[in-house]
Design goal:
alpha/beta; globular; 5 strands; 4 helices; 5-stranded parallel sheet; about 120 residues; Rossmann fold
Length: about 120
């Protein structure tokens, strides 16, 4: 543990996952990544994320189901949905981060949260 707040990233694209990891690390977060919702959900007992960034188009359990489970398990977690889908189709979340991801957009979103 580094003492930094934890960010959970659920993303199946290696490029997007690495980009989010780099951006979140620069913003002062320890980053835990999961390539699918099942892996993220399996690790819930070991974490207390301050922020979660969830892609909607995941293999296996959908991103929407992952969002629901994060909301249920971590009601204080700041939830960001990221997808190539139209933001109008995103499930309820604290913020939307449409793809392609831009670092300035993520920074702007993160400025408004408690760490």
């Amino acid at each position: 543990m580094t003492g930094r707040p934890l960010a959970l990233v659920v993303e199946d694209s290696a490029d997007q996952m690495n980009l989010l990891r780099r951006y979140l690390d620069r913003e002062g977060f320890e980053v835990f990544v999961a390539r699918d919702a099942e892996s993220a959900i399996a690790s819930f007992a070991e974490m207390r994320p301050a922020v979660a960034v969830v892609d909607l188009l995941l293999p296996g359990i959908t991103g929407e189901e992952c969002v629901r489970q994060i909301r249920d398990r971590f009601p204080d977690c700041f939830l960001i949905v990221s997808s190539v889908l139209d933001p109008a189709d995103y499930p309820d979340a604290d913020a939307a981060l449409p793809k392609p991801i831009v670092g300035a957009d993520l920074r702007r979103i993160l400025r408004g949260i408690d760490r």
